[in-house]
Amino acid sequence: MGNEKDYKQILDKLIALTNDLDVISHIKNPEKAINEFDKVENFYKTQKEFLKNFMILQNPDKKAQDSIEKVIADVGSKISMLDDEFDCRGWRIFNKRVSLSYSGSYVSIRKAQSSDAEILTKWWNDGAIMAHAGFPNGVGTTVETVREGIINRSFYNLLFIIEYKREPIGELSANIKEGIASFGIKICNEKYQNNGIGTFVMQKFFKELFSSSIVNKISITTNIKNSRAVHVYRDKLKAVEVKQFDFVDANGDKQKSIEFELTKSQWEELTKKE
Fold first, then answer.
1. Which of 34, 43, 111, 154 lies 20 to 30 A from 51 at CA?
2. Quick one: fold of 104-113+145-272?
3. E strand or H helix at 189, and its extent?
4. Which residue blocks in 104-142 are alpha helix, DSSP H?
């Protein structure tokens, strides 16, 4: 299970990780930073396991044990601090699955993957689903186009899949720019519409967005004919109507939309009362 030379080399490598973490903390590109961080964290975990087994099997002297435990603790603390910083920046939520307990089952929000292109294409080409967005006949896209869009999507132009009991039932999007998240949600499986899942997901996701340092306002726009959505935004989420505007849908028919806003301070005040 290794020897003294092996464990000292590993300690040197772990100590060197602190410099790597310093470099990663200054990377401006979120995806690159998180990818590099994950590599460091995975290496740390494997080497930590090796060192723990080494101490059990080789029973080194107290000085060596203290040295090993100190390095493990110091590097682990630095990794934990940077991970917390990524959470604060709002970077982690956009790259992980969030599972939420709902009525005894689980609703999950996860980042869309290229393998989701088929179900997204089906939804986006369905006029019944897309009518309120201005596409009563669907958008007429292809699986290849949707897949390419997912792959090339920028870090702050987010697309998530909503799952109930691991079944995809809808989508959630947020385009973040200058502190404002332009938000959209659709429960696309009719079986799960109008039963509170969408509201539940929004409440949990808004909490995640506002807990980050990159979002201070959420903007939501919906067709005025979508009375259920208007009710949820205005009455349940207490979003404030800021304007109404006209638009023409894909069939050339005039429509009207409402834009709502919810600020971080409004959200914090609202959740204090819960």
1. 34
2. Aminopeptidase (3.40.630)
3. none
4. 117-124, 127-130
